[in-house]
């Protein structure tokens, strides 16, 4: 299966992709812990079936020092002992915020209360934005059929500015 469209080869597509990347840089530089950011991006990408993003975020998390055990268990995080309560709150928000159509309530009050318990306002702003941005990136990559496997850590660092 070949990609359908190369966003970076199209002037408008490249402009939009660069803007999304710059939003992700603002989130990356936020006080939300980097490990939590990586787990959130990996989990949303798994749910959305985005091979490109699973590849990207797994390799970036590994480069940042995240363990293989935690990365391998993120898909079954509820049934593990390797995540903190704060990370569990972020993963619950990620799942509920990614699967909006699966429930009439979107993000539950229980999940929101756990997020409020573990994160301050700046971290929450970053977390909510991260869930939205990774879902947008997943959808773009799935729609144009960008496949996983060839990502090299840091390969998009030149996109900023």
Short structural summary:
With 161 residues, the protein is mainly alpha-helical.
Strand content: under 5%
Structural class: mainly alpha
CATH class type:
Mainly Alpha
The helix count comes to 7
CATH architecture: Up-down Bundle
The CATH fourth-level homologous superfamily: AhpD-like
Shape: globular
Q: Count the beta strands.
A: 0
Blueprint of the fold:
Layout: H1 11-28, H2 34-47, H3 51-63, H4 68-73, H5 85-98, H6 109-118, H7 121-144
Helix pairs in contact: 1-7, 2-3, 2-5, 2-7, 5-6, 5-7
Notes on the structure:
There is one protein chain. By secondary structure, this protein is an all-alpha fold. The protein has one domain (15-151): AhpD-like (Up-down Bundle), CATH 1.20.1290. The chain has seven helices and no strands. Helix 2 packs antiparallel against helix 3. The longest helix has 24 residues, at 121-144. The radius of gyration is 15 Å and the shape is globular. The mean pLDDT is 93.
